[in-house]
Every structure is written in C-alpha cells, then in structure tokens.
Amino acid sequence: MTILKHRELPIPHIIRTWWPLAASWLLMGAEVPALSAIVARLENPEINLAAYGGVIFPLALIIESPIIMLLAASTALSKDWESYNKLRRFMMRAGAILTAVHMLVAFTPLYYLVVEGILGAPAEIVEPARYGLMIMTPWTWSIAYRRFNQGVLIRFGHSQAVGAGTMIRLCADGLVLFAGYVIGTIPGTIVATCAVAAGVISEAIYAGIVVRPVIRDQLKVAPRASDTVTLRSFLSFYVPLAMTSLLGLLAQPIGSAALSRMPSPL
Asked: Rounded to whole angstroms, how far apart are CA atoms 133 and 126?
C-alpha cells in the first residue's frame, strides 16, 4: 500500500492492525450459533432451521458474494479522494444491482424456480423461507456499504472500529433474538432474519458514521496517487477476488440442493 511503501512494517503495527480484525471474525462466528439456539427453542424448529440454513442463508450469501471483497478492494485502492469516489460509485451501483437481484428472487415467481426447481427444497420450508428472504432484502446493500467503509478505516489505521462495529451488530442481533424468544409466537425464520437484518443495518450505519472524520481529516488530504484507479485496473484487481468469493460460497447452495434430494431431508 502507498502509505507504508517506503518503510518496513513493525510487528507492533501489524498486531495493532490485525487483532481487531481477527476479533471481528471471531465474534461474527457467534452469530449463526446464537440464531440456531433461539430458533431451536421456538415453534417448529426443524422447519424453521431448515428454511434458514437450507434456503435463506445460502441464497442471501450467493447473491451478495460479488461485493464481499469490497473490504479488500477499498483497503488496497482507496489511496486518495479521486480513487475513493470511483470505488464508492462502484459500491453503490453494485449494491443496487444485487439488491434488485435479491428482490427479483424473493418477491417474484422466480423464487419457486430457484428454491423448488434448483435447490429441490422440501415443500414444508418453501413458504417460511420466502418470507425470511424478503426480510433479508437490506442485507446485500448494507454489507456492501459496511465493507467498503471498513476498508477505508483499515487503510488509514482505524481497524479497531471494525471490531467495535461487529459488537454493535451482535448487540442488535441479541436484542431482536431476545425479543423473539420472549414473545415466543413469532416463527423462527422471521425472528432469525429480522435479527440478521437489524445487525447488518446497525453495523453499516456505525461504519458510515465513524468513517466520516477519517474521510475529512485523512483521505481528502492524502496526496494524489500516481497510479489512480481506472476502470480497467480496478476490474483486473477485483474480478479475481469476486470470483474467488463466488466459487467458495457456491458450496452453500450446492450442499443445500444435495441434502434436499437425500432421504429424510428434514
């Protein structure tokens, strides 16, 4: 990266940058077990767990996969104000397009083609999963916005804000899950997807707030990079990352489709 190009990276600097990111991933790993624990204690746990784990989560992941690597792209390429604005335009457009794809799948008859025809999901989980997927509509754009801004934070030495954002996400998750558990009559897929949606929206809002002074005081005054980002250079950098993410996450719907076609899928 340009900022640290002409000097060695001291170990303490690496540790200060790394540990909040590692903690963030560790904390995010607690989200799915927490969701499963609550849904398992609500009505019809088998159907609701299968709907979330076999349809909602795999489809939401595969739709958002092209923008997952925005964190890496933003960290590497948000070198100056001009590059930042180009990346931001890409983030907004990609987020809008993928959100439209999500809505197309969740709100139109295409849903049945994907879930019944391709995934082969059991009939019992088709409708519960659809309502959950509808609730997850803000997921893709929220993640695009959050990861893009987190990349800027990391590049300019504020990786601790990433870990703080994850804590806010988990708190929002926990509040919704607790409310759903106390009420006890809301379907598990609704509780789980409302929790996830609340979590990612809260984290995105936090990232957008804490990045503002970084943009004002550090990014805008950063010297103009000699290798300013162009569409061609960005695509040559980003497409391999996006394809890696897409291919890796394909395991989720492939596994779901395979399990749906085995004996006793529920």
From this structure: 11
Task: Read off the pLDDT of residues 146-202 as tens digits, 9 standing for 90 and up.
Answer: 999 999 999 999 999 999 999 999 999 999 999 999 999 999 999 999 999 999 999
Task: Give the model confidence (pLDDT) of 191-248 as tens digits.
Answer: 999 999 999 999 999 999 999 999 999 999 999 888 888 888 999 999 999 999 999 8
**Torsional sign, CA 71, 77, 81, 84:** negative
Q: How far is CA 262 from CA 39, 76, 145, in A?
A: 24, 44, 38
Angstrom distance (rounded) from CA 99 to CA 92: 10
Separation in Å, CA 109 to CA 52, 113, 121, 143, 178: 19, 7, 15, 26, 33
Cβ distance 197 to 138 under 8 Å? yes
Which amino acid type is present at position 184? G
Q: What is the identity of the amino acid at 239?
A: V
Q: How does residue 2 score in pLDDT terms, banded at 50, 70 and 90?
A: very low
Q: Which tokens go with 49?
A: 């767990």
Cβ 9 vs Cβ 19: under 8 Å: no
Cα dihedral sign, 182-167-64-22: negative
Query: Quick one: CA torsion of 137, 139, 142, 147, rounded to 10 degrees?
Result: -150
Greatest Cα-to-Cα distance within the chain, rounded to the nearest angstrom: 62
Q: At what angle do helices 81-107 and 139-155 cross, to 10 degrees?
A: 160
The pLDDT value recorded for residue 1 is 39
Q: What are phi and psi of 117, to 5 degrees?
A: -80, -45
Q: What angle do CA 155, 172, 94 make, to 5 degrees?
A: 50
pTM of the complete model? 0.89
